[in-house]
Amino acid sequence: MYRTHNCGELRMDHVGQKVTLSGWVQIARNLGGLTFIDLRDRYGITQLAFNMDENSELCTQARKCGREFVIQATGVVKERSSKNANRPTGDVEIQVHELKLLNESIVPPFTIEDESDGGEELRLRYRYLDIRRNPVKDKLMFRHQVALETRKYLSQLGFLEIETPYLIKSTPEGARDFIVPSRMNSGQFYALPQSPQTFKQILMVAGMDKYFQIVRCFRDEDLRADRQPEFTQVDCEMSFVEVEDILQTFEGLVKSVYKSCLDIDLPELPRMNYDEAMESYGSDKPDLRFDLKFVELSKMKGNGFQLIDSADAIYGFVVKGKESSFSNKDINDLTEWVKRPQIGAKGLIYIKYGSEGIKSSIGKFYSDEQLTALSKSISAEKGDIVFILLGEKEKTLKQLGDLRLEVARRMDLIKTGDVKALWVLNFPLLEWNEEANRFFAMHHPFTSPLPEDLDKMNSTDRNTLASIRAAAYDLVINGSEIGGGSIRIHDRQIQARNFEILGFSKEEAEAQFGFLLGAFEYGAPPHGGIAFGLDRLCTIMQGGTSIRDYIAFPKNNMGRDVMIDAPSAIDEKQLKELNIKIG
Amino acid sequence: MYRTHNCGELRMDHVGQKVTLSGWVQIARNLGGLTFIDLRDRYGITQLAFNMDENSELCTQARKCGREFVIQATGVVKERSSKNANRPTGDVEIQVHELKLLNESIVPPFTIEDESDGGEELRLRYRYLDIRRNPVKDKLMFRHQVALETRKYLSQLGFLEIETPYLIKSTPEGARDFIVPSRMNSGQFYALPQSPQTFKQILMVAGMDKYFQIVRCFRDEDLRADRQPEFTQVDCEMSFVEVEDILQTFEGLVKSVYKSCLDIDLPELPRMNYDEAMESYGSDKPDLRFDLKFVELSKMKGNGFQLIDSADAIYGFVVKGKESSFSNKDINDLTEWVKRPQIGAKGLIYIKYGSEGIKSSIGKFYSDEQLTALSKSISAEKGDIVFILLGEKEKTLKQLGDLRLEVARRMDLIKTGDVKALWVLNFPLLEWNEEANRFFAMHHPFTSPLPEDLDKMNSTDRNTLASIRAAAYDLVINGSEIGGGSIRIHDRQIQARNFEILGFSKEEAEAQFGFLLGAFEYGAPPHGGIAFGLDRLCTIMQGGTSIRDYIAFPKNNMGRDVMIDAPSAIDEKQLKELNIKIG
């Protein structure tokens, strides 16, 4: 037996007991005749004490224990003379009688402490050392808890976790698939699922009624900072439901997980239409932890300033009480920021409504009175600053949305620990892609239109089609999309029409989704669902910034696992068996 | 809102309530002026009643509903005049006021009933219809429950579920990998994990202490009847443990799952050494639901019968009270059976110890008195029959093990519902492979020898190495291996020596497992674990025969998903992006 207790559980109650602990040497300290070892495991740190006068051999042995050595110590729990109030075990120490070296360690490339001195690449390479650090370990434990509570909640509601296959079929629609050559079916390939979308719909046709799965998904995309080629989804589907049923069920899930994992009571989630989110915040995932709500400013037109008079759209927002926080340099910086190609605005209009008077980048074309009146009309007061962008409407709203987030960051408007969750509803069904010269599904091709917009599906007019709203919803927390879903089409004809609108030929639709269309012939129930990004949910719940921190073994930006050095070359024999060649 | 209740919950308590149900038409019956529809969903079947006299339009509409149509019915719960005691909802019916067709169905290729008339291929192709049948649906629900209870039990003990990557590195040792070409790292490949073995060991080095994961595993093997290219494992690992800790913990898991999912109290699991299992049952996964224990019969030697006198080993077993159940023809059949190449015995010796006297295939060489004495010496009595095989010891034991199972099947010796679980312990560490002319790891290359056999690792003598026992254990239930594991090597030197014994060059070991050997340098704790086959566990728990029944979307023997028609050809463009060619 390696231990009677772990390193996090001994208290004053245990004083006098003989115990055995095993763990890692956090640090050994020699204080003259005394030596102390901080012994660490997943559960905590306990102090081991050695006395040179009482047992010099043992004490000498203890002094040889380097950082990260694995040792086993047996001794008696004693009350400490100088207690450590910062540590749950800080009232006691072990007077060690027996010490056993279980394994040595060479010197780690970075210290196992909360603030590490390793860079990210080094930490990924030695991930097994990184995980020993509290901040990393705690995140993985948190993730376990979130997954557990999710399963508990859904199971209690009668959801069944059903595993869907990972070796499926490649479908060109959507993101790029990872593919897997089949040895037994030469020249053919499986694909790894981007999501179990079609399978969960099949399960509804199969009558399973309520399905969920915490499941890995795969996308072979060029990796941006916060993307991983494999990620985890809480995937759900229900039969005989309308939008309201889904929102109720999964709002319950989110509240329950926040309560059980963070002890936070979320209020009823507000709901916002997609149109309003775009019009008021320039984003379909508005961050409501701060205001900066947009105002429409076409009233500025008619003053003879060509730029404004000819603008398709003019929008702005008021930053309360921050007039004096923006120096000329700050405004110049911000103007350069919005003109970067990633944002793409032509310029930035500001109105500083200072206590000394009004100042604006368009002061040449508008009198102080006009600017004051304009400011007041949008509830700006002395001490506020107004930012305005103009141009083509859709682009301007997005640019202003980006500016809104940047101003909030620069002005530090986000209160730490604040949680603002909401539903965004009624997304457009279709999105026109200029380059491909066709519509793409905004969510995916199985999304149902709102019942009241169903008729428009029969139109061939581009604008009419573009105006179809989907029975789709996103869960947004603190400006991040955490989950999304929709009521699905369950009628074969409507599904076929949707494929047609999306530019699929009948043959293509049949080849890729024939099994789903076929299933719809045999009594498909009305159904809908949602999927949450588990990695992202955990990250946002704890106010983190990178999903990588919540993945035990993440890949780097080149899709490499630098710890195991994958991907890698494989045997010629393997390629031969699969009947494939490189190049 | 599609329903107020599901189709399985209405009882006498609900009589008089207005309810709405949605579901599938199981069957519609027209009885003169009355029409009844059995409405089905996941939860049960409820009878809908329509009366031609009261509402002819509605009744006519009801009569048009074919099998598997999806309908919604609103009406009042009534007590039935003729109740159906076989159905939980059988006391009531719905007097329908409103009927809505939600979706039609064409005629299914087989009926949705407990006894289906579809062959297996047809049922797999229309898996969404197959799952609507109770026997299939119930198995998936059972699997959900087993997984849920497993997670509950392990989480309560402080195990953390940690997800390990699916895109890892190919290792030639063991079974064949599925591989995934990397687009971003041209000419390189990921592999899908055969198990998370190295990652869970890394997690122990990382200090996570107790890990589990219910995880998909992949093996590109030629498929036998009960193998699937992807299958699910309950994967576990613990630090600072010895064999006894692991057995206690996971015996608890198995007992807890049997209790919660089947209400069966398993007794303390017996333990048997590998050597004894082979010697007494000719199998490392003995089925203890029946006896037929082997007896060693070298005492038969010395009677001048060359075949016996020269045999390396002679073993047999007694079948109690079945002397008269074996006709000459039965014995001839069984003799042919053991001579089949799959079994490979040269012949079968029997002794029928009948009430009328003794009869044997070796009667020419042994007197009746000798045969009677022999029979009595192995506790055979009148009415019993003895079967004996001889030849090279190891082969003979295996052949007799196969014969033992076959006799039990033919004699119907297995009581339905009986559960006999045990631990098989102390497997050999190494297995000599004549063809490859080297040792292979019996479990896997990370398995630790028993502490008392550790010294033998330094030997170069083949017999000494072959005699090393591993700290390995298998959980066997009803003759199936449900789980297996071991204490792992945590010392880099011993691990390196093991790779050496297994014929790895230093470079090969480094290339494939360098990250694990590297991790062992930084304070690897003593650790060990186990993995259970979830598909198989579910199958055995319910006395099933095929793991396919417990997989929602299984593949056929060619590794094909016949429902979605995967694997399939992919776009030339995809191959180009991956820089691979077929052929």
3D architecture notes:
The structure is a homodimer of 583-residue chains. The longest helix of chain A has 23 residues, at 134-156. The first copy, chain A, contains 16 helices and 23 strands. In chain A, 28% of the residues lie in helices and 25% in strands. In chain A, a hairpin with a 4-residue loop joins strand 18 (430-433) and strand 19 (438-441). Chain A has helices at residues 56-63, 120-125, 127-130, 134-156, 197-205, 243-262, 274-281, 306-309, 328-339, 368-377, 393-410, 462-466, 492-501, 506-519, 534-541, 572-578, and strands spanning 18-31, 34-41, 44-51, 70-79, 92-103, 160-161, 179-181, 189-191, 210-218, 230-239, 271-273, 295-296, 313-319, 349-354, 357-360, 384-391, 421-425, 430-433, 438-441, 472-477, 480-487, 527-533, 580-582. The model of chain A has no long low-confidence stretch (mean pLDDT 95). In chain A, the strands form five sheets. An eight-stranded mixed sheet of chain A has the order 6-9-10-22-21-20-17-11, sandwiched between helices. With 583 residues, chain A is an alpha+beta fold. Chain A folds into four domains: 12-103, Nucleic acid-binding proteins (OB fold (Dihydrolipoamide Acetyltransferase, E2P)); 134-267 and 531-577, 2-Layer Sandwich (BirA Bifunctional Protein, domain 2); 290-410, 2-Layer Sandwich (Gyrase A, domain 2); 421-526, no CATH class. Chain A is globular, with a radius of gyration of 30 Å. At the A-B interface, helix 3, helix 4, strand 6, strand 7 and strand 8 of A face helix 3, helix 4, strand 6, strand 7 and strand 8 of B. Strand 23 (580-582) of chain A pairs antiparallel with strand 23 of chain B.
